[in-house]
Amino acid sequence: MALEDYRRDIEGCSRCSSCKWVPYNQIKSWRFSKNCPSIYRHNFHTYSGSGRMVIGLSLLEGRVELDETVAEIIYKCQLCGACDSACKTYRDDIDISEVLLELRAYCVEQGELLIEHMAMIDALKREGNTLGEPKAQRGDWAEGLDVKDVNAETCDVLFHAGCRYSYDRDARQTARGHVQLMRSAGMGVGIAGKEESCCGGRAYELGYRGEAANYADDVLSLVKSSGAKTLVTACADCYSHFQYVYPKMGKELPVEILHVSQVTEKLLDSGKLRFRRKLPLSVTYHDPCHLGRKGEPFAGVWKGDKLDRPMNLKRSGRKGVYDAPRNVIDEIPGLELTEMERIREYAWCCGAGGGVLEAFEDFSASTTAERIAEALATGAEALVTSCPWCLRVFKDAVEETSACIAVYDLTDLALMSAGIAQPAAV
Amino acid sequence: MIRVISDEAYKELEAAVGPDNVSRLPVVLDSYAFQPFENHESMPWCPSPVAVALPSTTEEVSEVIKACNRHGLKHKAFSTGWGMWCGPTTDNVVQIDLRRMNQIVEIDEKNQFAIVEPYVCGAQLQAEAMKVGLNTHIIGAGPNTSPLASATSMYGVGHDGIYMSYSARNVLGLEWVQPTGEVLRLGSPGSDKGWFSGDGPGPSLRGTMRGYTGALGGMGVFTKVALKLFNWPGPPQVKSSGTVVDLTSEIPENIGLYMCFFPNADKLADAYYDIGEAEIGYNSLKVATPAFMMVLAPHLFKKLKDTKNLSRMLGKTMGHLFLMLLAGTSKEDLAHQERVLEAIVDEHDGFILDQKNIPPLKSNFMMNFIRATLPALVFRIGGSFSTALGRNDSLDSQVTWGEAIADIKRGYASKGQIIDDMGDNPYFVPYESNMFAHCEVVYPYDHRNPRYLEGSNNITMDFIIGAVELCMEAGFGTLPPARKILSPLTSNYNYWQKKFSEAFDPDQGSDKGLYTDETEFDFSEIAPERVAKLERLVKERTWTELGPPE
Amino acid sequence: MSHKTVDLDGFKQVVGPDNVSTQESELESFRSAGMASRGSPVAIVKPTEMSELRDIIILARQTGANLVFSSSAPPRFRGDSIPSEDGVIVDLSGMDEITRLDRRNKVAYIEPGVTFSHLIEAADKVGLKVLMPLLPRAGKSVLACFLEREPITIPKYHWDMTDPLLCTEMVFGTGDLFRTGTAGSPGTIEQQIDAGLAHKNPLGPGTTDFLRIVQGSQGTLAGVTWATIKLEVKPSVHKIYFVPDIKLERLIEFTYRALRPRLGDEWLILNSRALATLIGETSAAVEELAGRQAPWTLVYGVSGYRYLPEERMALQEKDLGKIAQAAGVVPVSEVPGCPAKKMERILASPSPEPYYKTVPKGAFTDIFFLATLDEVSTLIAVMEKACEHHGYPTSELGAYIQPIQQGRTAHVEFALSYDPADEAESKKVAELADSASRALDAAGAFFSRPYGAWSDIAYRNCPDTVEALKKVKRVMDPDNVLNRGKLCYGEEVV
Prior knowledge:
The complex is a heterotrimer. Chain A has helices spanning 7-12, 37-42, 49-60, 68-75, 82-90, 96-109, 115-127, 163-167, 169-184, 201-206, 209-226, 236-248, 260-270, 323-331, 356-359, 361-377, 388-401, 410-418; strands at residues 148-149, 157-160, 189-191, 230-233, 256-259, 281-286, 335-337, 382-385, 406-409. Chain A is of the alpha/beta class. Chain B is globular. By secondary structure, chain B is an alpha+beta fold. The model of chain B has no long low-confidence stretch (mean pLDDT 93). Chain B is built from 19 helices and 21 strands. In chain B, the strands form six sheets. In chain B, strands 5-6-10-8-9 form a five-stranded antiparallel beta sheet. Chain B has a four-stranded mixed beta sheet with strand order 1-2-4-3, sandwiched between helices. In chain B, strands 15-16-14-17 form a four-stranded antiparallel beta sheet, with helices on both faces. Chain B folds into three domains: 7-97, Uridine Diphospho-n-acetylenolpyruvylglucosamine Reductase, domain 2, CATH 3.30.43.10; 104-231, Uridine Diphospho-n-acetylenolpyruvylglucosamine Reductase, domain 3; 244-460, FAD-linked oxidases, C-terminal domain (Vanillyl-alcohol Oxidase, Chain A, domain 3). Chain B has helices at 7-17, 26-33, 58-70, 122-130, 147-152, 161-164, 206-209, 265-278, 289-296, 298-305, 308-317, 331-347, 359-370, 379-382, 395-414, 450-469, 480-486, 493-504, 528-541, and strands at residues 22-23, 51-53, 74-78, 93-97, 104-108, 113-116, 134-135, 171-177, 183-186, 221-228, 230-231, 240-241, 248-249, 255-261, 283-287, 321-327, 351-354, 384-387, 391-393, 426-431, 436-445. In chain B, helix 8 packs antiparallel against helix 12, helix 15 (395-414) packs antiparallel against helix 16 and helix 16 (450-469) packs parallel to helix 19. Chain C has three domains: 8-91, Uridine Diphospho-n-acetylenolpyruvylglucosamine Reductase, domain 2 (2-Layer Sandwich), CATH 3.30.43; 98-233, Uridine Diphospho-n-acetylenolpyruvylglucosamine Reductase, domain 3, CATH 3.30.465; 237-442, 3-Layer(aba) Sandwich (Vanillyl-alcohol Oxidase, Chain A, domain 3), CATH 3.40.462. Helix content of chain C is 34%, strand content 21%. By secondary structure, chain C is of the alpha+beta class. In chain C, a hairpin with a 4-residue loop joins strand 8 and strand 9 (177-179). Chains B and C meet through strand 9, helix 7, helix 8, helix 12 and strand 19 of B and helix 3, strand 9, helix 6, helix 7 and helix 11 of C.
């Protein structure tokens, strides 16, 4: 697919601005009614979902030439997908998210690249991860864990840690916890350790389609060779790419794909995991974009007029992973969940995605701050989420601003309640 | 014509709003030139502005306008910016995007009004008003639109009209940056007495601000307005999940939703009249079964409408219905209103589908109805839609108008120039306990289909002929060619508007395209007999120096 | 301008010699309204149709005559039809037909000379009621009354400030004919009616609201030759209640809570003096009744209509009872000297002759303005202080509070009674009225209908509004022939 293939989507936009707002029936206040971090920050219509689609049309019609400035606008977007799911609340025939991705691919094709993104891609090529950390250390997080090495033996369940969990020192313990949690329930978990590669999702989002395809091939071959029937990841980004981008690229993984929150929910349902320890804490839950609206599985491409597209092929964002983490929270004794106003497919982004954290730090930080403000408005003592990228930016923001709220990975709370880890932080 | 803003002028705009809040980048300007909705002539583009400015205060708006005037640039403001009304109609325009003026300045709970800035949308204001037991009029276009814009500059019809009137009638105090850049506060705020009145002392300048329609950006910029709020007998927040089609809400026990069906249009009108006299009703909209299906299940609708018997059943058997939302002061009061409604509907040979007997439907419809969210789904069938010229007056006249337009539409639907929605697809609402009413008929189309554009001029002409034949004050006739035809038949209103425009805007700095400009209608594709018919009507009904035709 | 320079022959040619009068007995009523005036009426011209009015205005533009419109019978209290400069009275009271009464759409088509009594009688025959101001003068023109935004006593029907006026036909100061609202639609009025129009849309035509501009202009912008007026259905059952109380704040609280869900029909608050003036038929009765009333009395009506009327009324009574209890007030069905039925009649009728406010002492001066209800107590205190300062007994101060715009605003009206034969008292009241008006203005009162001296007070506060109004005047009356000297236009308009 190319930008031209989405011309009808773009021309279908009526400029109603629904892409800028939380779906109207869910607007609960003036304060938290916006959904798009980019226009919230930059204000010109150009920065909205609709405005970005117009950039596409302007480029296609030769009204505007792609240059550094235009590319910068295109990249000042977390690709969080809120515009897309808001639009699809009312429309069936427009795929904004796809247009946004095509715009980036177009930038890369035309050589309009951001230095920060190029650095990330170089790191990816060099070390196999987006953080530029040594490839050899990728499996260090699992040192000493009772877990299979899929490079040496097959397994039922392949756990894909992802770049952030593998290298982020704050997250490594949680990564171990994911495995411990599954192991405690008797699951035959394997990992690839230093042979695990990036899912390639970031490359795809930055417009580097070739690199993305290469990494997808790597993951695909690893999954096949592992013998696993299930692929579990704790990273929302990876989850989204496995579920949606891979099959869209024609590289569907031949296994069941689960996020760790779904695994936890299943273990609770089957009685293999029980939460015993009370955690007296009021929490609010942040839906990671890639686990929520962008975690909706790929359902196929409709070749005809999208006005006639069957509803099951419309990526509405409603079929993402929303209930599993909430069900897990609900099962932890003592936890009291107060929802933020923007949740599920209309959740506000954490600010980290789409290459924004790397290229436009201030913009990323202001997006994060907005979410922290919303979390604080609930009165909750803790902000819980299920994505290492969200966790990183939330923790950094809270530390920097001394905001009065704790930040937790859902798995850490599960581990504490299950008695696998000490509830020191609660 | 200046198509590029001078450095000097640009610097003055930067000084007015700060360099981060003004742009002349072609890519930014193009995103403001994209205005496909209701843009029948040059889809999807309108003339590109030469710069976009994002003021955050009234003073900044004033400075922007003054800078424009100094440099011979026109200005055109928008609030939420939906539709070709918002974009420039000519070259040399600075677009003033008011999205940074987004505050609900105050909600005066006791005196039932809110002071809002331009970029507050209906859903935001409603959400905040409900917290204090109040509600706001939301126009039919939906909760994404700016209540300030509807009240000051646009039209203002919504399906809460039976209880919450028409936007133009809900204005109290007002702050207006005139086309000269001077700030004028109308009514009591002009005398620093609070925002509770927009009229006086003496003659009301609200009348220069707008009439049936607004000046659509042609008369300066409105920066704050006090809008009437109305009683909301429901909870501070309606608990709901889902978004639109999958929405479910907890319904308060004192609110009910009813679909009232009648055997014909006359009976429906009779019932509406009686409902007005009984003074019940919180929201109400005459709809048609096909329209419902088209909105909620467009795929199914497309399949069914080609099935003759089903099509007849949809289009005819259940063609005359209105939705009625009743809101009582208590459960007991709702029961009373329900009994009144039943008696009226029964008297006029109708029947009621009480949605309390269909919990999922009620749970879905109520909030969709109160927040006016469903009209956004009209895009689903074809990607776009338009409405025939709308009118406000007696309920009977709306029935006549609705039927006339449905007839016109059928011809175009059969040629595939618009989507066949079975004709009757009105946006028909009573205002103020049926003191008067409104009807504009929806016609969906796919604007990306060249066949539509081929037919658009013809359908517009048919609407104009229909309006003149039915003596209609074509409030929606804001397009320059329609204005040129209709004004001489309608008290020569545009002659006077131009006078006011000249008085308040001596440099003609505001973009007048949709306010006073007149252009020739392109008759080249109109059949000669229709042109002759229009000419005959125009000749017969044109006002002379002595006044109206006798 | 004196009568010597007025082209009476020209006017006679337009309306016929019998319809031009310079008789002093007729002119006299246009000389005084308790307000000082620099001008005098020099002739009365009585058009009988729109074309004559238009020709009168065109003639005035040629000769520079000052035209002052009048539609009501004397006495004249507001001063808007008293020339500020020597002027020709254009007396429209002879145009007094109700040309159409549409029961289904609840609308009457009336000419300027139609009085309340006339319209009430006609509306009643078809089961409709007229939305009444409080006891208008018997000879008061309905059209003129609402052209001046006089408040009605049923707030729930007062949606916007133009109510109950709808569409109009008017002649601008340029001599151009114009029709407002849907009356401006294509076709003749008859064709429009045939097409189903009932002339109920007051807005427009187009993008300017000409009625709204002309309303409140005291005849300085246009003359109106007919209008449609919104009527309402007569209730099947109707009851009046009184809520006497010593504390106005409680009644205001009750009002806020009741009007928000649009409970009740008539709704007004009177102090003891205003209530007594309303119900007392003689000066002595007023004095006596005033002493027997609570300091404040709220009057409200409840109604039932065609469907389940008793049930509706019972529900309203119940709801209002609860609200009253919460506000700490007690509704009763009678106050001293006024059973509910009597008040019901008063609220549905014009004033008996002589005009009720003249009953206590022979003359009165009104002070009225707009404010929000929560500001009213403060403003009353300001008024009482002014009375005390001028030695005017507060016991004789009438106060009437009329919620309008469905309770969002209130028309507040003070009445100062005096004996016109007592020069000292007259002077005292005039001084009091002036200084109290200024004090009220300073305290937040909005003089939205600035008659006479109030125009100075009101327009001093809003120079931007004045500049804008001058622009309007230049468009609609470029030669300043309409009611010259009124409001804020000044000399430079011409």
